[in-house]
Amino acid sequence: xxxxxxxxxxxxxxxxxxxxxxxxxxxxxxxxxxxxxxxxxxxxxxxxxxxxxxxxxxxxxxxxxxxxxxxxxxxxxxxxxxxxxxxxxxxxxxxxxxxxxxxxxxxxxxxxxxxxxxxxxxxxxxxxxxxxxx
Length: 134
Fold this sequence. Notes:
This protein is α+β, with helices and mostly antiparallel strands. The chain has one domain: copper amine oxidase-like fold (2-Layer Sandwich), CATH 3.30.2280. The protein has five helices and four strands. Strand 3 (54-60) and strand 4 form a beta hairpin. Helix 2 (77-84) crosses helix 3 (86-102). It is elongated. The protein starts with 6 loop residues before the first helix and ends with a helix. The mean pLDDT is 75.
């Protein structure tokens, strides 16, 4: 017969610790808001990517952009970091490739899914919700 499986072997199979993590941290910025802050800007976050370069990102209702560079706005934080940092792009691509090789039939961890059932339709129609979250 086969020896009983060990939980550690299971986690070693899915381990991606041999890869460089694309991010060191993401945290809410304590820096003062920019002078050119617009009404649609919600908050700022500090991001340190794998190259060690800290970047301040502004989160707005329309998307994310580096502080002071509104022309680089994207809808996804990952897409923005891939656009402004080649080391992040390479590390993120390596992590996603390794994940798909280990879990060929699983769901990729691309972030939150947009499920209509998460937020009731009645709440979506209210002005307060749409003003703050859409």
